[in-house]
Automatic annotation (TrEMBL):
This is Segregation and condensation protein A. It is found in: Cytoplasm. It comes from Domibacillus antri. GO terms for cellular component: cytoplasm. Its main location: cytoplasm. The keyword Manganese does not apply. InterPro entries: ScpA, ScpA-like_C. The lineage of its organism: Bacteria, Bacillati, Bacillota, Bacilli, Bacillales. PANTHER family: SEGREGATION AND CONDENSATION PROTEIN A. One of its GO terms (biological process) is DNA replication.
Amino acid sequence: MEYKVKIDSFEGPLDLLLHLINKLEIDIYDIPAAEITNQYLLYVNTMHQLELDVASEYLVMAATLIAMKSRSLLPDHSSDEDEYLEEEDPREELTRRLIEYKKYKEAAIKLQEREEERTKLFSRPPADVLFAPSGEGPLNVSIYDMLGAFQKMTRRKKMAVPRQATVRREEISVEARMEVLLKTLKEAKEPVLFEDLFQSNERDELVASFLALLELMKQNEITVTQQGNFADLYVISGGKQ
């Protein structure tokens, strides 16, 4: 499958690491090297499987995490070598970068909120107010939430389907899946569970469906919602107002 898609939700490896830290409820000042590395590589591998454009900085961070994990698994010789005592724990540098990134990201969010508040000072048609997002509404779903949901869905499908020889069907294009998914969502009377949009067990069709959803999100044709951390994702027709 040659179709590739790149969307603005990819903000870089530090953004992915912060997502994992929040999702796994990890202390940013005491990052478990092995766990965070395994989870990070799982997401990067999923990006490759889906043929998403993965910037080189993701791979550089992957190499850094692997080195950090390898070091954490080595025997502790700190009592034998004075130089080892003076060597900085690579997690400290990563923590500093994450804290700095988090600080600037939070500042950007606050500036965006101020901008949105300022726009409310100008007159607008009353109808717009009815569609304004509520502060207590569903969580914003990121590309990483989508990747995580795709991981869980494909793992369950592999466990449910017996290993047997099958005849490979004709490959379905992303454009074709976009039309089918959009039609399904428009005909649905309520939000559709993310996993219910993946009826096939064929890898190519699963990938095409996922890329189709991403492209529909990019075109503001659909909205993906989540009511809380670790909750299921739901998809509805219509973009964000």
